[in-house]
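Before a colleague's protein record goes any further, I have to sign it off. Thanks in advance; the entry in question is below:
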Amino acid sequence: MSTKELWTAAPDAFLVPANGTFKIAGAPTDPPGKVDKSDLEDELEQHVGAIRDLQRKLYASDDYSVLFVFQAMDAAGKDGTIRAVFTGVNPAGFQVSAFKAPSHEELDHDFLWRIAKRLPERGRIGVFNRSHYEEVIIVRVHPEFLDKQKLPRMDLENIWAERYESIRSFEKHLARNGTIIVKFFLNVSLAQQKRRLIRRIDKPSSNWKFNPDDVAERERWPEYMQAFEDALNETSRPWAPWCAIPADHKPYMRVQVARIIEATLTSLGVDFPTISDEARAALADCRSLLEGQ
């Protein structure tokens, strides 16, 4: 599979170009027109079924590993989208890693160390709910977090460019060695995030999701949007493209993510392994033995 085939697996409408021209202010957060929720639910079900079947072929073929990265502001719908899109996949070939604040052990290593530990094996789909991009988004908005990272030098003028370079090299290395990477930025608006945060407060079963810090972080929205824009422009490449998905309408968002995931898995051309004539004859002998027992 060429990088061009992977690159074109995502619709141009959502693909972040590799030439550094992406503008987050011009990226939609809503569907382009009216959408029918029932139609979207039916379409999602079709994509989910296809993803389930493709994942089983991926697992059986054991050729590629596939990594889907999800980044977004809080309340954009990462958890629900991952749950909805990957319903029914074989747990033996699927893993989700959620990255929170780094531990003491993780802080004693470079920022990519904990990421490398969670990469999917060949034949598996790995999902990152947040990822190494926290280090050029949250840490960029809060550079004071760098104080805990025990860096040998502190060069705020160059550190972000250096981290982008490290990420690009890391992801290209993975791609060269058989890991397919697609990254999703779930693009929620400030107004929609507010509505969802209030809903978490008003709905008792969602209270546990609410973090008071999210309210304070809204004051830094322009800084976060600049950090996202720079990160996407610096790291969207043919071997690891970013897709900016409108996230204000959850059913629409989930369908678009599912479409891209299905297209990516389809582009691999994986299938169940075939066996030799000799092996097939051995199977026939085993069947005869079983019938006679």
In short: The two ends are 46 Å apart (CA to CA). Residues 3-291 form a domain with the Rossmann fold fold (CATH 3.40.50.300). Residues 37-61 form the longest helix (25 residues).
